[in-house]
Design a protein that fits this description.
seven-stranded antiparallel beta sheet; 74 strands; Immunoglobulin-like; six-stranded mixed beta sheet; disordered N terminus; 816 residues; mainly beta
């Protein structure tokens, strides 16, 4: 058989190639020579084989031979190259080929070692790699398969599963517990793939609690035959795993308590309970009986537990029996007999008996019964009670004193209780009532003292019963009540009052500072309030008085502050009473007063009259009022504007009107002095329209009687020059004859006039002065308005005869 030009002779492969030399001489060239045995094999377990590489002739220079495996997953060659020289060309160099393990059950595999000598020739040497992988039950390894334990308390055990040979497809192994009442598995199956086949997978088994005393139970985890599209793995049945589930149940009967129980000859009872410690497989019956029926009896004589109610405790009531004998306290037992059941584990179990003491009621003693936590009263008068009774019949009356150790917190309704031979066993109730102290002192503990008994029965003399603890709950809290919380004052200096009072009695004086949040709007008095143990519940008044600011600023809200209280009583120190909201009603309006606005008279003779202008409230900026005459042919005005500031706003400014002569016979003419719209940066005063003034200009070309007088004149009851007023009267034209005008006071008890007759004549028609004097009436009648009446004038001058001048109004100021 030849390989790439190499012929095989007796297991020696020689390359048949000749090389021509110079001239005609033929010189033999070295050829590749491989010496190997028949049927070369390696194994996946690392088994190897060898062959020799040499030359047929010595080389003239070193020859390198390259060696390589056609399938390195089956076999590896070493070395990978050899160098042949004159010294080693024959027999050559040994080459070793070693089998490679592929972990796949793929059978024996052929491969070749390629020997490449270049110019000396090349060849392939055949090999077979013997497979060491076998598919069988051991292809699935389970570790461990025995000795595992779980427990009914929920403890777990684990085992691992792994393949020993790589599959060509996924391998699934189902897993289950033979007794899920004893143990469960964490997964229902395991899947191995060509990627994870050699990675152990863990299965966790968890013990299951069955509440039955059934001992340790054996069970198994079954690994069913594998399924796979790799037919080599299909049906392989891994080893199952044996486990034991440790029982945590113990058959038993629990009796609670088994000692310390007390009954009494008065018929008081006690109880204990019976319950099984594990579920029985059949009914369990336990009989119950008193060891001494003269001391105590049981209400239930038999108990039956089933697999359903085994863990429900059953209560046994034991009641003391009165034997009317002073035999002292007697011990006896409640006997629980051995259990009867077809459950062999429970049959014959003997529960513990219960030790009971029956208190003798025939021995001298006093029983005081109260709430375990003590009595609770409160300062609102809540009552609590306790009872006292004798333990046995006395031979004489027994008296027991009762008193509170602190009557300021609680008192008893009786000072003592007395028992006789007839009512000794009838409990007497003592009531305790809480007392109010008006102090926020919190809950106070006190004690009801139950004193030593007195009796002609020596056995009942000097018995000292237990005292009764009590607590009196406080109904007081440190607080300050302010009423009302809103008040109203005004700039007219009106006041309003609110009151302050404490809610409980302090242990130290309590001082409450009071102040106004805006003293430009309101003031308060007093500045501090002091409360103590004598006046804490008496409301103290705080007066809030409005302040006038002369500015039309509208109603202003401000606050009356009650600062935190200052006191040595910790309950009141720092208590911050509610503040009071106050409103100061404004009495100022942005307005202009013009006085008078009518009955002003000037004349064409140049006579003047005037009126005053003043602001009603203080402006925040200057206020200018333009003044003008609506008919300057009848009268002029001075000045033509008025300016008021915050300094002179309340000082009247005078406007003078002067009559103008027009030489026309036009009679008396009425015109107006116009007070224009105000101009100011104070928005309240900007654009205010004061009233205009109406003026009459008396014509001097028309016969008339001109009375030059203000709208109102003022006199005083003091009389004399300081109590008088004057006005003037004249004719407007020169009469042709004498003109006589009379006048008088309409109320001479208030004022008199002088003279009472005015006479004018040709050339004498100018002003004449009339004086009005106030009259003192010594009556507190206030200022009185009265009139000076000017009668119609008489004259032979028909132009003046019958002219009726206007009357004059006066006010007499009262001095009483």
């Amino acid at each position: 058989m030849s390989y790439l030009g190499v012929s095989r002779v007796s297991a020696v492969f020689v390359a048949a190639t000749l090389v021509a030399g110079c001239g005609d001489n033929i010189v033999a060239s070295p050829l590749l020579k491989v010496t190997a045995g028949d049927s070369l094999t390696t194994t996946e377990g690392g088994g190897s084989a060898t062959f020799t590489v040499g030359l047929t002739e010595p080389p003239s220079s070193p020859v390198t031979i390259e060696l390589a495996s056609s399938r390195t997953t089956e076999g590896e060659v070493s070395p990978s190259s050899v160098t042949l020289t004159f010294e080693n060309f024959d027999p050559g160099v040994m080459v070793t080929v070693t089998g490679v393990d592929d972990a796949v059950a793929d059978g024996d595999q052929d491969y070749a070692i390629h020997v490449d000598g270049g110019r000396v020739g090349s060849t392939d040497i055949p090999f077979k790699n013997v497979d060491d992988d076998v598919i069988g039950p051991t292809a699935v390894q389970v570790t461990p398969t025995t000795g595992l334990t779980t427990a009914e308390s929920g403890t777990t055990a684990t085992f691992t599963v792994v393949l020993t040979t790589m599959p060509s497809a996924n391998v699934t192994i189902p897993i289950s517990s033979t007794r899920t009442s004893e143990g469960t598995v964490s997964t229902a199956s395991l899947v191995f793939t060509p990627a994870n086949w050699d990675q152990p997978q863990t299965v966790t088994v968890t013990g299951v609690d069955d509440a039955i005393d059934d001992g340790n139970q054996a069970y198994s985890v079954i690994l069913d035959p594998a399924t796979s599209t790799d037919s080599r793995f299909t049906g392989i049945n891994p080893s199952d795993v044996a486990l034991t589930n440790l029982d945590n149940d113990t058959r038993g009967v629990m009796v609670t308590p088994v000692s310390g129980l007390v009954t009494s000859e008065t018929g008081t009872s006690t109880t204990f309970t019976v319950v099984l410690t594990s579920e029985p497989t059949a009914d369990v019956t336990i009989t119950v009986a008193s060891s001494d029926l003269t001391e105590g009896t049981v209400a239930q004589t038999s108990l039956t537990f089933t697999p359903i109610n085994w863990n429900a405790p059953r209560t046994i009531t034991v009641t003391g029996v009165d034997d009317s004998e002073a035999d002292g306290d007697r011990a006896y037992n409640v006997v629980t007999a051995p259990a009867v059941s077809t459950d062999t584990g429970y049959a014959g179990l003997d529960p513990a008996d219960v030790a009971v003491t029956n208190l003798d009621d025939d021995t001298a003693g006093v029983i005081v019964t109260a709430a375990a936590a003590g009595l609770v009263t409160n300062e609102s008068g809540l009552t609590a009670s306790f009872t006292i009774v004798l333990r046995s019949q006395p031979s004489a009356a027994v008296t027991i004193p009762v008193a509170s150790n602190d009557p300021t917190e609680g008192v008893t309704n009786v000072s003592s209780v007395t028992f006789t031979t007839l009512d000794w066993n009838a409990p007497q109730e003592v009531f305790v009532q809480g007392q109010n102290d008006n102090i926020a002192d919190g809950p106070i503990n006190y004690t009801i003292l139950v004193g030593s008994s007195t009796s002609a029965d020596a056995t009942y003399t000097g018995i000292d019963p237990a005292d009764v603890p009590a607590v009196n709950l406080d109904n007081d809290s440190a607080g300050i009540l302010v009423t009302p919380l809103t008040v109203q004052t005004s700039e007219n200096l009106t006041s309003e009052v609110f009151t302050v009072v404490l809610l409980s009695q302090p242990t130290q004086p309590v001082v409450v500072p009071v102040s106004s949040g805006d003293s430009t709007e309101g003031t308060v008095t007093p500045a501090t309030l002091t409360f103590d143990a004598t006046n804490w519940d008496q409301a103290q008044s705080v007066t809030v008085t409005g302040v006038d600011d002369l500015i039309a600023d509208g109603d202003q809200v401000y606050t009356v502050f009650l600062a935190p209280a200052v006191s040595g009583d910790a309950s009141y120190s720092g208590v911050d009473a509610a503040n009071v909201t106050a409103t100061n009603v404004d009495n100022d309006s942005a307005g202009v007063t013009v006085d008078p606005v009518d009955q002003l008279f000037v004349s064409e003779f140049g006579d003047t009259d005037f009126f005053d202008v003043v602001l009603n409230s203080m402006p925040t900026a200057p206020v200018t009022i333009p003044i003008s005459s609506n008919d300057t042919t009848e009268g002029t005005v001075a000045p033509t504007s008025l300016t008021f500031t915050s300094a002179n706003w309340n000082i009247p400014q005078t406007v003078t009107i002067t009559g103008v002569d027009d030489t026309l016979v036009d009679g008396n003419v009425v015109f107006s002095i116009i007070t224009g719209l105000t101009v100011s940066a104070d928005p309240a005063f900007d654009g205010v329209n004061p009233p205009d003034a109406t003026v009459t200009n008396v014509d001097n070309e028309t016969p008339n009687v001109f009375v030059k007088a203000r709208k109102r004149l003022f006199t005083k009851e003091t009389g004399g020059p300081s109590g008088s007023a004057t006005f003037r009267v004249r004719l407007t034209t020169d009469p042709s004859a004498s003109v006589s005008c009379t006048l008088q006071s309409a109320d001479t008890s208030e004022g008199v006039v002088s003279p009472t007759t005015l006479v004018f004549g040709p050339g004498n028609f100018g002003f004449q002065t009339v004086t009005i004097s106030g009259v003192d009436d010594q009556v507190v009648d206030g200022d009185v308005l009265y009139t000076i009446v000017l009668n119609a004038c008489t004259s032979s001058d028909n132009a003046y005869n019958g002219l009726d001048p206007r009357d004059v109004t006066a006010i007499n100021r009262d001095n009483d």
